[in-house]
Specification:
Helices cover 19% and strands 29% of the residues. It contains 13 helices and 37 strands.
Length: 755
Amino acid sequence: MPLPQAFAECRTRGNQPLHFMGMHALARLHGNLLDMHLHQRFRNPGRRNVEISYSCPLPWGAVLLAVSVQLNGQTLHGEVLPKAKARDRYEVALEEGNSSVLISVNPDGSLGMELGNLLAGEECEIHLHYSQVLLPAQGSLRCMLPTTMAPRYGDAVRDGGFEPHLAPQTDSQVQYPFSAEIHIEGELAQALISCPSHRTSTQLKSDGCVLRLTEAQYLDRDLVIQLDALPSTSMASAAIDLTEREESVVMACLNTTLAQQELTPRAVQVQFLLDCSGSMNGDSIHSARNALLQMLGQLGPEDQFSLSKFGSTHQHCHARMVNMDSTQREHALSWARQLQADMGGTEMESALLSTLGLPGPQQRDLLLITDGEVFAIDALIQTARHKAQRIFIVGIGASPAEQHLRRLALATGGSCEFVAPDEDAQPAILRMFHRLRSPVLTQLHLELPADVKLLSTLPLPRHAFADEHLQVYLRIEGAWPSQQPLQLTGHVDGATEPLLLAHCLPQTVVDNDNSLARMATQALIKLQPDLASMATYQRPLSEEQLEKLALRYQLITDQTHFVLVHERAEQDKPVDLPDLVQVPHMLAAGWGGAGTLLSAPLDSSPSVPSVWRTHRKQSNTPLMASSDLEIPSFLRLSEEFSAADVRFSVHRRTPRSITPAAFVKALQQLDFAALQQIDELRAAGLPEKIALRLQQQVSPTLTEAAVVQRFVQAMMTLKSNHWQEPMTMDSDDDLFFTLPLSGVTARSWPSLLMP
């Protein structure tokens, strides 16, 4: 499908021409299979020939089936070769003045794309075709198309294993147009369909519906399609392997079901670990904070928990795991509401080790809330495996590192959920706690018909969750017999007798692209690094065996690259070697507080983006250092606010002995108009009891900064000479009443309790 004509004028915000002109996605979603075609257009706007490098993100489990290139009106095709041979062919082509395309797999699962000798004024479109198996969970299905790669903590080459010229870069000045068309067919079209990431229009068709992006869209956030209220059914397809025609491949998605009596909820022992690094600033910390608050609401008196946060360092709210009672709940909610993305880098490994090392039950789970933006994920996975405890993850943000987070969760027997900015986190939280409270399914086993000869299968996981799909690949001799079921059995919480968990009838299909066999082979290759840690006697394949498999099925892997060479006429060949151009990614929307995707103001904004302007004086707040910054309207004091309407609180026996006059004097020593956080008031001497009362007023409609400024304004208005005696009343009661300013007594403090 041709791309919109507007792509031809793609430029930076500084009006400089770009080498990457955008992407169009055309997808078909049917059953549990997503068939995706990505059209990416490149252009050389300069006068010299160039070599363009670009790292293209792919979703988890995507299998690249085909690559084609359109150049100067010609459609070109290449082949998959051993990586050394493919690299040599690519380099020789460039030296000879020909054009060439090389595609490899980066360590994080993204594609490394190199386009050499694109001449001045030429355009080139690279078409990627991949398939992905989508696994529903508890009646919900989520389809994610990553479009950009957010900045990550660490060194891409040293920690992430990237080639230097393919290390992902970002640029806040570039804009790449994005269009998409998603065809949803069959039963999926009857689901509740939403797109929390983009504005879309829906066109109904006889066999389903079509979703299209509306308005101008860009490659600055993942495209997310959410389907809910799906039937929980197992399904399987079988097809002849066109490479090994005496064999068939069966791909099954088996939905594990348990009788109601087996689903008795159990108490949980969970440790919450929240990412408070700088990349979480803005939308992400807002979503993470709300998600954590909802999770705390899921805990009851029979549950144990702990709270921790991390960035460059880590901090624990609890010295050990504690029971959830009314005191701990109030303390935890107060701690969670004050979380900010103010802890620097993302030292995830040390935080994970420290959290899992807290005293508590041996059988516990860790629930990590993060955007996953780190390079050194392999070391973290090894550490997590060594601890042998399940890690559940809620991925936050407009472009979380899905590949990293899913690898970490699956390696430990946990699971992942993702929440986009401005998306309701409650469904994801409920699904996560369903897993935490449900019985564990172990000793999984496939039951095949007696007349089916099994040649090989991928190992089943050690653990599974109820009401979720497991993906299974089987290689059998001949064809699957009609009307013969495939069954999955397992044990519930270590019971002695196995139960039937799932069954289905594989349907024989015609697979002209040999997609099932290639997807099964890709899954086998990707599983090799994990075989040693799985409960299986299957030996990992050698590098030579992996290379042969990849070449036989034309798959791009760690051992193989795709290469294409376009031989030019002698008069068209450039004289010089090309200039290297690395295409940067758009900065992910909302990353690090750079803008927001939320439809409502953030519930707390202590770290204000530096692009906001103000006419205030220079302050000591780092992000408010510019003298021409302006507070956005939702942080300004309401004109309707009157100090005479302030509610006052008589606090008896306060833990700190400070007079209101002394506190006002401390405020006058500061740039009180720049105060944004309740912690700044604490530092000025505000008693903790009053600080907590202020914290309770923070809400999605009233930011922490607004609460602070209203309180400060009320305090600065009170200039009575009678505010000299400390608060020393001897009762624990808190009495709240409204008084005009003239009636304020010596022992009254403004506490700004909203009606």
